Amino acid sequence: MTQSPKPAAPVSPADRLDLAIDGMTCASCVLRVEKALASVPGVKAASVNLATSRARLTLNDTANAKIESAAIEAVRRAGYEAHCVKQDGSEQPKIDENRAQEAAKLQRSLIAALLLTAPVFILEMGAHLVPGMHHWIATSIGTQRSWLLQAALSTAVLAGPGRVFFAKGIPALWRRAPEMNSLVALGAGSAWIYSMVATFAPAWLPPGTRNVYFEAASVIVTLILFGRMLEARAKGRTGAAISQLLKLQPRDARLLRDGQAVDVAIETVLPGDILIIRPGERVPVDGVITEGEAYVDESMISGEPIPVTKRRGDPVVGGTLNTTTGFTVKATHTGGDTALARIVRMVQDAQGAKLPIQALVDRVTAVFVPVVLAISALTFAVWLWLGPSPSLAYALVNAVAVMIIACPCAMGLATPTSIMVGTGRAAELGVLFRQGDSLQRLRGIQTIAFDKTGTLTLGKPVLTDLLVLDDAYDRSSLLSWAAAMQMQSEHPIARAILDAAMQEGLALAAAREFVSVNGAGVSAIVQGRAVLCGNLRLMQSRNIAITHEDSRVGAWADEGKTPLYLAVDGRLAAIMAVSDPIKPSAVSAIRVLHQLGLQTVMITGDNARTARTVASQLGIDDVRAGVLPEGKVEALQGLRATGKSLAFVGDGINDAPALAAADVGIAIGTGTDVAIESASVVLMSDDLHGVANAIGISRATMRNIRENLFWAFAYNAALVPLAAGAFYPPFGLLLSPMFAAGAMAFSSVFVVLNALRIKRYQPEAAAG
Ligand code: ADP
Ligand code: MG
């Protein structure tokens, strides 16, 4: 049996440390920072994400200040900056602001570079392109003076807006760890040095090679700055989902202190505080209503657009909207403990995750820059040796073109940007990927198994029938006995029987010696009688004779009702039926899943006949009925034995083992209950369409990643040989360093823009 790797147990925050890293530009930076962090004593593993600029450390022990400062120091020695971040989302506004500042700074650099580069470009390229201009320059200001002007301007470009490339790239070269900035610095730098020599010490150059490439040096810097600015702007948009979630949380709260209302900052609210929520305001933290009644719009957590009625004692969630009347709330969870903070953390975790596919990319990029430098050196040597005259000029230009075209930033951005946008869009649709790698695993899922009660059905059964079989008892007393013992059971069926007794206004006696038999029913002593309530299995195990009720019971089962038996003092006294209506969304959700090509299975403890009826109402392909709660894992393994990978959808309360055992566990959250540990995907609303959306998003994201990777690799595979001049002998084709810079800037912008397309992902809908 092929068993896919189980998702790693969620790391508890105590042995985890998150750092924000500044200054990373490409995939090789990521590897370098990871290596530096992994070598810090006490760090078990380090994972760095380029799109979020975050590093996540898994520690051998709990986090402490020593490891923290050692890690920051290690990052600094590798040539980057690091600082600690909190994982409650409170940093997000600052991150957004930093991003915006970075984009603005890049824009200023770009404008400066553009202004300085334009005259250089016109003087040099104009002379080549416009007939007569060359002559005009030579006669008006003179060629030498034109070169001097270009020298001044391009020096300003390299020393001003272009300084970042040298400041980062050259030290990286000394550390023998060249990265993308090194390539730009070397490329633009060599064009500039050569031109300076040609201008000021022409005697050093062989005859016929006295050319200047100031325009190439300047344009490379300008175009790459342009690419980075576009990238920074687009990246800002990839994090929008989290910012939107955070906007739901009010900045301050109105506290009731000694009978006085005071406005305080949200950070100062503590559990136990009493808060006043006015109509039209958002609830600031999680709490319980102490006074008043309200309609609360919980659409942000449940996706349900209709406001829910909340009364005294009901829980309310921070971030939800109070629509009509004011009420007071006692805070239960504040700060990083609120449901909203947990949701934000989950999305951030997923956004920063590394997919298994990334391992391949990492292996390639690790050797990429050194290989490019080698190819560039080889290009230089071959052109110098075999190239046409002036061979030194050709050798230089082509070597520079190779260095510029091969910057691996598109490769570094390919997966993380898609993951970021994909998980962000998923969060908007109420799908939380608790483990980022479930994004990749979900795409390969072939079968979806559902728990029945509470997942496919509303989980709120009602008692529909009660048939007294023994004339010695009357209906009311039987129902009251059943209800008396069900009072102690947690099962939804118990609720149904209890509700029925309440509705009929029956008085309930006390039940003693209550026993709950998992997956079968309950027994107890009520008013001195041994009462037993449950399914056929329970009756058989207690040797209760079931004689001629089969047709009645069978008819109920065929209607999709769950039949129950009630025995008193060892003899069958009544049969009952409860009905748990299927969720309104379930039929169309199952249809959508079939449209997506998935097989569906229902797993339930209910009897086979009832289960089959419910399954056929829903259009579910296959049923596993009569499964004991502890048998669900086994049932899943049985389904997986066919070699198909499997997702399990459950309500997360009693389904934890099954959720953990499936390839992907999808938990249906009930509002606040988002921290369902055993699931790898959590749906915030109980609408089953979320399952299809999770799969749809996963497919869209993985497709996007493959497009990005294909693009990033194909682009290099195609253009490096062109830049090296491989197509010169047959076709006379060469790539100017300026075009190389343009193409390279475009390739990373393409990758980010392509990833942003996932934002337009629309929920899966039933056809027709
Ligand atoms: P499921 O989650 O699919 O409903 P369970 O294992 O919880 O499966 O329950 C299986 C069956 O056991 C129920 O269909 C019912 O017949 C019986 N049962 C469980 N708990 C009770 C109870 N408290 N009262 C009566 N019957 C019960
Ligand atoms: Mg259940």
Can you tell me about this structure?
The protein is an alpha+beta fold. It is built from 27 helices and 26 strands. The strands form five sheets. It has a seven-stranded mixed sheet with strand order 14-26-25-24-15-22-23, sandwiched between helices. The chain has a six-stranded antiparallel sheet with strand order 6-5-7-13-8-11, with no helix packed on it. The longest helix is centred in the N-terminal third of the chain and has 38 residues, at 92-129. Mean pLDDT is 85; it is low at 1-12.
Instruction: Report the uncertain regions.
Output: 1-12
Proportion of helical residues:
40-55%
Overall average pLDDT: 85
Shape designation = elongated
Tally of individual helices? 27
> What is the terminal-to-terminal distance?
39 Å
| Beta strands, count | 26
Please give the largest β-sheet: 7 strands, mixed
Kindly name the structural category. alpha+beta
